Amino acid sequence: MTSDLSAALRAAADGPHPDEAAVQHAGGQATGTSLPVEDAAELADFLRFMGEWAAADHHRLSASLAEFLDGHPYGLEMLCHDLARFRSLLSGADSDIDF
């Protein structure tokens, strides 16, 4: 990966992670961006796939992520948690999803 992407991943890992209460307080949505249901479903399916893959090959991926992040505390468990959280934000929509 490029150094720009690596820096972005590190910055995202350092950034705030809204808890479920904060997301529910905001109605599960932020304003300004809309995502068609079909795209949201495809993205949710991709996030599920990535989470299952990470769980299935935990040992190798954990070591690889740790090496890639050069000792940053963001680990595979947190990545899997974030993937599940993002997927849950996308699931259960009947119409276009606003972010």
Topology:
Elements: H1 3-14, H2 20-25, E1 34-35, H3 37-56, H4 58-68, H5 76-90, E2 97-98
Antiparallel strand pairs: 1-2
Helix pairs in contact: 3-5
Largest sheet geometry: 2 strands, antiparallel
Could you tell me the strand content as a percent range? under 5%
For the terminal residues, how far apart are their CA atoms? Answer: 28 Å
**What share of residues is helical?**
55-70%
Structural class: mainly alpha
Number of helices: 5
Stretches with pLDDT under 50, minimum 5 residues: 93-99
Using DSSP, what is the number of strands? 2
Query: Which word captures the global form?
Result: elongated
Question: Can you offer a commentary on this structure?
Answer:
By secondary structure, this protein is mainly alpha-helical. The chain has a domain at 31-98. It contains five helices and two strands. It has helices at residues 3-14, 20-25, 37-56, 58-68, 76-90; strands at 34-35, 97-98. Helix 3 (37-56) packs antiparallel against helix 5. The radius of gyration is 15 Å and the shape is elongated.
Features:
99 residues; two-stranded antiparallel sheet
In short:
The chain is mainly alpha-helical and 99 residues long. It has helices spanning 3-14, 20-25, 37-56, 58-68, 76-90, and strands at residues 34-35, 97-98.
